[in-house]
Automatic annotation (TrEMBL), chain A:
It is found in: Membrane. It holds the Pfam family Sdh_cyt. One of its GO terms (molecular function) is metal ion binding. Pathway: Carbohydrate metabolism; tricarboxylic acid cycle. The gene is sdhD. Its main location: membrane. It comes from the Bacteria. The keyword Transport applies. Signal peptide: none annotated. One of its GO terms (cellular component) is membrane. The keyword Electron transport applies. Membrane-anchoring subunit of succinate dehydrogenase (SDH). It is a multi-pass membrane protein. This is Succinate dehydrogenase hydrophobic membrane anchor subunit. It comes from Parvularcula mediterranea.
TrEMBL record, chain B:
Part of an enzyme complex containing four subunits: a flavoprotein, an iron-sulfur, cytochrome b-556, and a hydrophobic anchor protein. One of its GO terms (biological process) is tricarboxylic acid cycle. The keyword Iron-sulfur applies. The keyword Transport applies. Signal peptide: none annotated. Binds 1 [4Fe-4S] cluster. Binds 1 [3Fe-4S] cluster. Belongs to the succinate dehydrogenase/fumarate reductase iron-sulfur protein family. Residues 1-24 are annotated as: Disordered. It comes from Parvularcula mediterranea. It catalyses: a quinone + succinate = fumarate + a quinol. Pathway: Carbohydrate metabolism; tricarboxylic acid cycle; fumarate from succinate (bacterial route): step 1/1. GO terms for molecular function: 2 iron, 2 sulfur cluster binding; 3 iron, 4 sulfur cluster binding; 4 iron, 4 sulfur cluster binding; electron transfer activity; metal ion binding; succinate dehydrogenase (quinone) activity. Its EC number is 1.3.5.1. This is Succinate dehydrogenase iron-sulfur subunit.
Protein backbone atom coordinates (compact mmCIF):
# COMPACT_ATOMS: atom_id res chain seq x y z
CA UNK A 1 0.00 0.00 0.00
CA UNK A 2 1.43 3.35 -1.02
CA UNK A 3 2.05 6.00 1.60
CA UNK A 4 0.40 9.41 1.25
CA UNK A 5 3.72 10.83 0.02
CA UNK A 6 4.13 8.22 -2.73
CA UNK A 7 0.46 8.47 -3.75
CA UNK A 8 0.98 12.21 -4.10
CA UNK A 9 4.01 11.56 -6.33
CA UNK A 10 2.12 9.04 -8.49
CA UNK A 11 -0.83 11.44 -8.92
CA UNK A 12 1.53 14.23 -9.92
CA UNK A 13 3.24 12.12 -12.57
CA UNK A 14 -0.01 10.55 -13.81
CA UNK A 15 -1.85 13.86 -14.26
CA UNK A 16 1.22 15.29 -16.01
CA UNK A 17 1.25 12.37 -18.47
CA UNK A 18 -2.47 12.70 -19.12
CA UNK A 19 -2.13 16.39 -19.84
CA UNK A 20 0.63 16.20 -22.44
CA UNK A 21 -1.48 14.67 -25.26
CA UNK A 22 -4.67 16.39 -24.12
CA UNK A 23 -3.14 19.86 -24.05
CA UNK A 24 -1.41 19.36 -27.41
CA UNK A 25 -4.77 18.25 -28.88
CA UNK A 26 -6.62 21.20 -27.28
CA UNK A 27 -4.13 23.83 -28.49
CA UNK A 28 -4.11 22.44 -32.05
CA UNK A 29 -7.91 22.19 -32.06
CA UNK A 30 -8.40 25.76 -30.88
CA UNK A 31 -5.89 27.05 -33.44
CA UNK A 32 -7.65 25.20 -36.26
CA UNK A 33 -10.97 26.65 -35.07
CA UNK A 34 -9.80 30.24 -35.43
CA UNK A 35 -12.45 32.12 -37.39
CA UNK A 36 -15.21 29.66 -36.50
CA UNK A 37 -18.58 31.07 -35.49
CA UNK A 38 -20.03 30.71 -32.00
CA UNK A 39 -22.46 28.07 -33.24
CA UNK A 40 -19.62 26.06 -34.82
CA UNK A 41 -17.68 26.23 -31.56
CA UNK A 42 -20.70 25.05 -29.55
CA UNK A 43 -21.24 22.19 -31.99
CA UNK A 44 -17.61 21.19 -31.67
CA UNK A 45 -17.73 21.18 -27.86
CA UNK A 46 -21.03 19.25 -28.01
CA UNK A 47 -19.44 16.40 -29.96
CA UNK A 48 -19.43 13.47 -27.53
CA UNK A 49 -15.73 12.65 -27.76
CA UNK A 50 -14.65 16.32 -27.61
CA UNK A 51 -16.83 16.83 -24.52
CA UNK A 52 -15.35 13.70 -22.94
CA UNK A 53 -11.78 14.87 -23.59
CA UNK A 54 -12.55 18.37 -22.30
CA UNK A 55 -14.07 16.94 -19.11
CA UNK A 56 -10.93 14.81 -18.65
CA UNK A 57 -8.79 17.90 -19.19
CA UNK A 58 -10.83 19.91 -16.66
CA UNK A 59 -10.45 17.12 -14.10
CA UNK A 60 -6.74 16.59 -14.67
CA UNK A 61 -5.55 20.22 -14.85
CA UNK A 62 -6.94 21.44 -11.49
CA UNK A 63 -5.74 18.25 -9.80
CA UNK A 64 -2.23 18.69 -11.21
CA UNK A 65 -2.32 22.40 -10.36
CA UNK A 66 -3.35 21.72 -6.76
CA UNK A 67 -0.54 19.15 -6.41
CA UNK A 68 1.99 21.65 -7.78
CA UNK A 69 0.83 24.54 -5.61
CA UNK A 70 0.66 22.13 -2.67
CA UNK A 71 4.34 21.34 -3.24
CA UNK A 72 5.17 25.05 -3.22
CA UNK A 73 3.22 25.44 0.04
CA UNK A 74 5.07 22.47 1.57
CA UNK A 75 8.39 23.96 0.41
CA UNK A 76 7.99 27.49 1.68
CA UNK A 77 5.33 27.61 4.38
CA UNK A 78 6.87 26.20 7.52
CA UNK A 79 4.24 27.07 10.13
CA UNK A 80 1.93 24.08 10.42
CA UNK A 81 -1.22 26.19 10.93
CA UNK A 82 -0.56 28.43 7.93
CA UNK A 83 0.39 25.42 5.84
CA UNK A 84 -2.84 23.56 6.64
CA UNK A 85 -4.97 26.66 5.97
CA UNK A 86 -3.28 27.40 2.64
CA UNK A 87 -3.47 23.72 1.60
CA UNK A 88 -7.21 23.79 2.28
CA UNK A 89 -7.65 27.00 0.26
CA UNK A 90 -5.58 25.47 -2.53
CA UNK A 91 -7.83 22.38 -2.63
CA UNK A 92 -11.02 24.50 -2.61
CA UNK A 93 -9.66 26.68 -5.43
CA UNK A 94 -8.75 23.66 -7.56
CA UNK A 95 -12.10 22.01 -6.86
CA UNK A 96 -13.94 25.19 -7.86
CA UNK A 97 -12.06 25.43 -11.16
CA UNK A 98 -12.72 21.76 -11.89
CA UNK A 99 -16.43 21.99 -11.07
CA UNK A 100 -16.93 25.16 -13.13
CA UNK A 101 -15.01 23.72 -16.10
CA UNK A 102 -16.81 20.39 -16.10
CA UNK A 103 -20.16 22.11 -15.60
CA UNK A 104 -19.47 24.44 -18.55
CA UNK A 105 -18.70 21.51 -20.87
CA UNK A 106 -21.75 19.53 -19.72
CA UNK A 107 -23.96 22.59 -20.04
CA UNK A 108 -22.82 23.17 -23.62
CA UNK A 109 -23.07 19.49 -24.54
CA UNK A 110 -26.53 18.85 -23.09
CA UNK A 111 -28.24 22.22 -22.66
CA UNK A 112 -26.90 24.70 -25.22
CA UNK B 1 6.67 31.54 6.66
CA UNK B 2 10.01 31.18 5.08
CA UNK B 3 12.73 33.44 6.43
CA UNK B 4 13.12 36.22 3.91
CA UNK B 5 15.52 38.34 5.94
CA UNK B 6 19.01 37.22 6.84
CA UNK B 7 19.84 36.47 10.46
CA UNK B 8 21.69 39.10 12.47
CA UNK B 9 25.39 39.42 11.74
CA UNK B 10 25.10 37.55 8.46
CA UNK B 11 24.96 40.42 5.96
CA UNK B 12 28.24 41.41 4.40
CA UNK B 13 28.87 45.01 5.35
CA UNK B 14 31.64 47.54 5.39
CA UNK B 15 34.87 47.67 3.47
CA UNK B 16 37.04 44.61 3.58
CA UNK B 17 40.77 44.84 4.11
CA UNK B 18 43.11 44.88 1.14
CA UNK B 19 46.42 43.03 1.01
CA UNK B 20 49.03 43.09 -1.74
CA UNK B 21 51.83 40.63 -2.14
CA UNK B 22 55.23 41.23 -3.67
CA UNK B 23 55.34 41.32 -7.44
CA UNK B 24 58.58 39.90 -8.86
CA UNK B 25 59.76 40.02 -12.48
CA UNK B 26 57.77 37.02 -13.61
CA UNK B 27 54.82 37.66 -11.30
CA UNK B 28 51.24 37.00 -12.43
CA UNK B 29 49.24 39.10 -10.01
CA UNK B 30 45.65 38.09 -9.38
CA UNK B 31 43.03 39.28 -6.89
CA UNK B 32 41.34 36.79 -4.58
CA UNK B 33 38.30 37.95 -2.62
CA UNK B 34 37.71 35.87 0.49
CA UNK B 35 34.71 35.92 2.81
CA UNK B 36 35.76 36.73 6.36
CA UNK B 37 33.67 36.27 9.48
CA UNK B 38 34.70 35.99 13.09
CA UNK B 39 31.73 35.38 15.40
CA UNK B 40 33.82 36.43 18.42
CA UNK B 41 34.23 39.94 17.02
CA UNK B 42 30.48 40.61 16.98
CA UNK B 43 30.91 42.32 13.62
CA UNK B 44 29.21 41.50 10.36
CA UNK B 45 31.11 39.53 7.73
CA UNK B 46 33.31 41.31 5.21
CA UNK B 47 35.17 40.36 2.06
CA UNK B 48 38.93 40.86 2.11
CA UNK B 49 40.92 41.24 -1.12
CA UNK B 50 44.31 39.70 -1.63
CA UNK B 51 46.43 40.60 -4.64
CA UNK B 52 48.92 37.82 -4.96
CA UNK B 53 51.37 36.29 -7.41
CA UNK B 54 49.79 33.12 -8.83
CA UNK B 55 52.78 32.15 -10.95
CA UNK B 56 53.40 28.43 -10.39
CA UNK B 57 50.08 27.91 -8.62
CA UNK B 58 47.58 25.62 -10.32
CA UNK B 59 44.84 24.89 -7.78
CA UNK B 60 42.61 27.10 -5.65
CA UNK B 61 43.70 25.31 -2.47
CA UNK B 62 47.35 26.12 -3.20
CA UNK B 63 46.29 29.73 -3.67
CA UNK B 64 44.52 29.79 -0.30
CA UNK B 65 47.54 28.25 1.40
CA UNK B 66 49.78 30.89 -0.19
CA UNK B 67 47.44 33.68 0.95
CA UNK B 68 47.52 32.26 4.48
CA UNK B 69 51.27 31.79 4.59
CA UNK B 70 52.34 34.98 2.74
CA UNK B 71 49.68 37.62 3.37
CA UNK B 72 47.23 36.82 6.15
CA UNK B 73 47.69 33.94 8.63
CA UNK B 74 44.26 34.64 10.16
CA UNK B 75 42.28 33.22 7.21
CA UNK B 76 40.51 30.05 8.40
CA UNK B 77 39.65 27.15 6.09
CA UNK B 78 39.57 23.37 6.24
CA UNK B 79 41.87 21.27 4.11
CA UNK B 80 43.56 17.92 4.37
CA UNK B 81 44.29 15.48 1.55
CA UNK B 82 44.72 18.05 -1.26
CA UNK B 83 43.68 15.44 -3.85
CA UNK B 84 39.86 15.32 -3.83
CA UNK B 85 39.48 12.42 -1.45
CA UNK B 86 38.74 13.85 2.00
CA UNK B 87 36.10 16.44 1.03
CA UNK B 88 37.37 19.01 3.55
CA UNK B 89 38.04 21.97 1.27
CA UNK B 90 34.58 22.41 -0.25
CA UNK B 91 33.80 26.10 -0.74
CA UNK B 92 31.74 28.27 -3.03
CA UNK B 93 34.30 29.28 -5.65
CA UNK B 94 33.24 31.92 -8.18
CA UNK B 95 29.60 31.13 -7.43
CA UNK B 96 29.85 27.37 -7.73
CA UNK B 97 30.39 24.84 -4.98
CA UNK B 98 33.42 22.62 -5.39
CA UNK B 99 36.65 21.40 -3.90
CA UNK B 100 39.45 23.95 -3.76
CA UNK B 101 42.02 21.18 -4.23
CA UNK B 102 40.56 19.97 -7.54
CA UNK B 103 39.49 23.34 -8.95
CA UNK B 104 42.19 24.77 -11.19
CA UNK B 105 42.79 28.49 -11.55
CA UNK B 106 42.50 27.99 -15.32
CA UNK B 107 38.84 27.01 -14.79
CA UNK B 108 38.05 30.37 -13.24
CA UNK B 109 38.62 32.73 -16.15
CA UNK B 110 40.92 35.71 -15.89
CA UNK B 111 39.04 37.96 -13.46
CA UNK B 112 38.94 38.08 -9.67
CA UNK B 113 38.51 34.84 -7.76
CA UNK B 114 35.73 34.92 -5.17
CA UNK B 115 35.78 32.32 -2.40
CA UNK B 116 32.86 32.03 0.01
CA UNK B 117 31.82 29.33 2.48
CA UNK B 118 29.30 26.69 1.41
CA UNK B 119 25.92 28.43 0.97
CA UNK B 120 23.21 28.45 3.60
CA UNK B 121 25.29 26.79 6.30
CA UNK B 122 26.11 28.30 9.67
CA UNK B 123 29.61 29.78 9.51
CA UNK B 124 32.02 28.86 12.28
CA UNK B 125 34.74 31.20 11.01
CA UNK B 126 35.66 32.52 7.56
CA UNK B 127 35.35 29.57 5.16
CA UNK B 128 34.68 26.98 7.87
CA UNK B 129 31.02 25.94 8.07
CA UNK B 130 29.20 23.93 10.71
CA UNK B 131 28.32 20.58 9.11
CA UNK B 132 26.77 19.00 12.22
CA UNK B 133 23.28 18.80 10.69
CA UNK B 134 24.70 17.44 7.44
CA UNK B 135 26.43 14.61 9.30
CA UNK B 136 23.32 13.91 11.40
CA UNK B 137 21.34 13.46 8.20
CA UNK B 138 23.97 11.09 6.88
CA UNK B 139 23.78 9.10 10.13
CA UNK B 140 19.98 9.03 9.89
CA UNK B 141 20.05 6.86 6.76
CA UNK B 142 22.10 4.26 8.68
CA UNK B 143 25.10 4.14 6.33
CA UNK B 144 26.35 0.70 7.23
CA UNK B 145 25.74 -2.89 6.17
CA UNK B 146 22.76 -4.53 7.85
CA UNK B 147 22.65 -8.19 7.01
CA UNK B 148 20.76 -11.08 8.56
CA UNK B 149 23.54 -13.46 7.50
CA UNK B 150 26.49 -14.06 9.74
CA UNK B 151 29.17 -15.40 7.39
CA UNK B 152 32.20 -17.18 8.75
CA UNK B 153 34.58 -14.77 7.08
CA UNK B 154 33.10 -11.93 5.08
CA UNK B 155 30.00 -10.90 3.09
CA UNK B 156 30.71 -11.90 -0.50
CA UNK B 157 29.39 -10.02 -3.51
CA UNK B 158 29.51 -10.87 -7.20
CA UNK B 159 31.34 -8.48 -9.54
CA UNK B 160 27.99 -7.74 -11.24
CA UNK B 161 26.33 -6.78 -7.95
CA UNK B 162 29.38 -4.74 -7.01
CA UNK B 163 29.01 -2.76 -10.25
CA UNK B 164 25.61 -1.53 -9.06
CA UNK B 165 27.43 0.54 -6.46
CA UNK B 166 29.52 2.43 -9.01
CA UNK B 167 28.58 6.08 -9.05
CA UNK B 168 27.31 5.80 -5.47
CA UNK B 169 30.14 4.66 -3.22
CA UNK B 170 32.55 7.35 -4.43
CA UNK B 171 30.81 10.13 -2.48
CA UNK B 172 33.27 11.87 -0.14
CA UNK B 173 30.62 13.80 1.86
CA UNK B 174 32.04 17.20 0.96
CA UNK B 175 28.50 18.71 1.16
CA UNK B 176 28.87 20.55 -2.14
CA UNK B 177 25.67 19.00 -3.51
CA UNK B 178 23.41 19.45 -0.50
CA UNK B 179 24.47 23.05 0.06
CA UNK B 180 23.85 23.85 -3.63
CA UNK B 181 20.27 22.55 -3.43
CA UNK B 182 17.52 25.19 -2.96
CA UNK B 183 15.21 22.55 -1.49
CA UNK B 184 17.88 21.80 1.09
CA UNK B 185 18.25 25.51 1.83
CA UNK B 186 14.54 25.84 2.65
CA UNK B 187 13.89 22.49 4.29
CA UNK B 188 17.25 20.99 5.24
CA UNK B 189 17.40 22.34 8.77
CA UNK B 190 14.22 23.17 10.65
CA UNK B 191 15.53 22.65 14.15
CA UNK B 192 14.99 26.31 15.02
CA UNK B 193 11.33 25.93 14.04
CA UNK B 194 10.90 22.76 16.09
CA UNK B 195 10.10 20.75 12.96
CA UNK B 196 13.02 18.36 12.75
CA UNK B 197 10.55 15.65 11.72
CA UNK B 198 9.84 17.63 8.55
CA UNK B 199 13.32 18.02 7.12
CA UNK B 200 14.65 17.20 3.69
CA UNK B 201 17.64 14.87 3.97
CA UNK B 202 19.42 16.43 1.00
CA UNK B 203 21.16 14.94 -2.06
CA UNK B 204 24.26 13.64 -0.25
CA UNK B 205 22.35 11.64 2.39
CA UNK B 206 19.91 10.32 -0.22
CA UNK B 207 22.73 9.26 -2.55
CA UNK B 208 24.20 7.30 0.34
CA UNK B 209 20.77 5.88 1.20
CA UNK B 210 20.54 4.64 -2.38
CA UNK B 211 24.05 3.18 -2.12
CA UNK B 212 22.88 0.91 0.75
CA UNK B 213 19.52 0.16 -0.85
CA UNK B 214 21.36 -1.12 -3.94
CA UNK B 215 23.88 -3.17 -1.98
CA UNK B 216 23.15 -6.85 -2.64
CA UNK B 217 24.60 -7.82 0.76
CA UNK B 218 22.19 -5.62 2.71
CA UNK B 219 18.93 -7.16 3.94
CA UNK B 220 17.16 -4.00 5.09
CA UNK B 221 16.12 -2.68 1.68
CA UNK B 222 12.42 -2.52 2.55
CA UNK B 223 13.06 -0.88 5.92
CA UNK B 224 15.36 1.65 4.28
CA UNK B 225 12.73 2.48 1.64
CA UNK B 226 10.02 2.74 4.29
CA UNK B 227 12.15 5.19 6.25
CA UNK B 228 12.52 7.44 3.19
CA UNK B 229 8.87 7.28 2.14
CA UNK B 230 8.08 10.73 3.41
CA UNK B 231 6.87 14.06 2.00
CA UNK B 232 9.82 15.93 3.47
CA UNK B 233 12.73 13.49 3.80
CA UNK B 234 12.66 12.50 0.12
CA UNK B 235 9.94 14.22 -1.88
CA UNK B 236 11.27 17.76 -1.38
CA UNK B 237 13.62 16.91 -4.26
CA UNK B 238 12.21 18.63 -7.33
CA UNK B 239 15.02 17.50 -9.65
CA UNK B 240 16.58 20.96 -9.76
CA UNK B 241 19.88 19.22 -10.61
CA UNK B 242 22.24 21.70 -8.92
CA UNK B 243 23.65 18.69 -7.07
CA UNK B 244 24.70 17.06 -10.33
CA UNK B 245 26.22 20.27 -11.65
CA UNK B 246 28.47 20.83 -8.65
CA UNK B 247 29.51 17.33 -7.55
CA UNK B 248 33.33 17.35 -7.68
CA UNK B 249 33.35 13.57 -8.09
CA UNK B 250 31.00 13.65 -11.10
CA UNK B 251 28.24 11.73 -9.30
CA UNK B 252 24.51 12.04 -9.95
CA UNK B 253 22.51 12.35 -6.71
CA UNK B 254 19.39 13.42 -8.67
CA UNK B 255 19.38 10.10 -10.54
CA UNK B 256 19.80 8.22 -7.25
CA UNK B 257 16.84 10.10 -5.75
CA UNK B 258 14.71 9.40 -8.84
CA UNK B 259 15.60 5.73 -8.53
CA UNK B 260 14.50 5.71 -4.88
CA UNK B 261 11.19 7.29 -5.92
CA UNK B 262 10.76 4.67 -8.64
CA UNK B 263 11.46 1.88 -6.14
CA UNK B 264 8.89 3.36 -3.76
CA UNK B 265 6.27 3.40 -6.54
CA UNK B 266 7.06 -0.23 -7.35
CA UNK B 267 6.97 -1.08 -3.67
CA UNK B 268 3.50 0.41 -3.45
CA UNK B 269 2.34 -2.05 -6.11
CA UNK B 270 1.99 0.45 -8.88
CA UNK B 271 4.19 1.03 -11.88
CA UNK B 272 5.53 4.26 -13.29
CA UNK B 273 5.18 4.19 -17.06
Amino acid sequence: MASAATKHFIRQRFTAMVQVPLTVWLVISVITMIGATRVEMLEWVSTWWVAALLVTWFLSVPLHMSIGIGDIIDDYIHKKGSRSALSLLNSIYALAIGVVGVFAVIAIAFIA
Amino acid sequence: MVELTLPRNSKISGEGKKYEGKAGDSAEMRTVNIYRYDPDSGQNPRVDSYKIDVNGISMVLDLLIKVKSDLDPTVAFRRSCREGVCGSCAFNINGKNGLACTTGLDELGSGDINIYPLPHMPVVKDLVTDLTKFYEQHAAIQPFLQSDDVPEEEHLQSPEDREHLDGLYECILCASCSTACPSYWWNGNKKAEGQEDQEYLGPAALLQAHRWIKDSRDDKTDERLAQLDDTFKLYRCHTIMNCVQVCPKGLNPAAAISEIKRMLVERSGQKVT
